[in-house]
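Entry for the shared binder. Reason: the reviewer on the internal report wants the predicted structure included alongside the sequence.
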Amino acid sequence: MNIQWFPGHMAKTRRLIAENLKLVDVIIELLDARIPFSSRNPEINTLINNKPRLVAFNKSDLADEQISGQWVKWYAEQGINCILINSISGKGLNEVKARARELMSEKIERDRAKGKLFTPVRLMVVGIPNVGKSSFINRIVGRATAVTGDRPGVTRGKQWIRINSEIELLDTPGILWPKFEDQEVGLNLAFTGAIKDDIMDIAEAAMELLVRLSKNYPAELCTRFKLEPDVLKDIEPLELLETVARKRGCIISKGQIDYSRIAAIVLDEFRGGKIGRITLEKPGDREETRAANGVAPEI
């Protein structure tokens, strides 16, 4: 399945980020903890250049804890600050604010030496669509300031938000990149909802996801869909999707499978964490994660 999606407003967002970099001190880069490689836009490195950066793994409550720990260690080895957060519960958000201040501590001290006693830290939040930026901002600010939604592409404009007397934040819409060189990246983004369902074949996406889960999380898959473990042995992808469909009663006239319905169920339950805490990629899966995620992987 070939997935490409780059709406026109995303090109505008790329320009918006570049134009406003001089106004901010620290970049907060939100990644999806379930796909820490695929949810990192390789263009961000070029866009932000040498700005201090803090990487926040959002939706960490939905990800495999053990693998999340491996990712935090891997990013630390690349010299990148990394925090596990949950924008819904607020886990890790106080640490985000504290770390942002730490990254600017030298600048703040220099300003104080020049007689400037108050230096607000100005942050920019960047990330792909549906990574949870609006929920992150609302939670960190403490009120419903940014527009939120459960679909990609809700936030469209630039907005400055005051977090407290010490920190101000610039929100930007989600940004993907024009072409996915690795279709596995496109699939991972489709699985997690970063790409709109209506521009792809959701039945094929669900089938691909079930295959992935059968290999890496067979116990969770069997428990959620009431499958016998032996069923997963040597089963064809389409047969697996149809087996799950029958377990959920996704049948239309004359015993035919309702592929659209079962696909929506599989994707929704994965995205909502109902199948289990799942991470779809590990550090080093692709050529040591392609030079610290700075370059999109090749086929």
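Summary line for the report: Residues 146-156, 295-299 have pLDDT under 50 and may be disordered.
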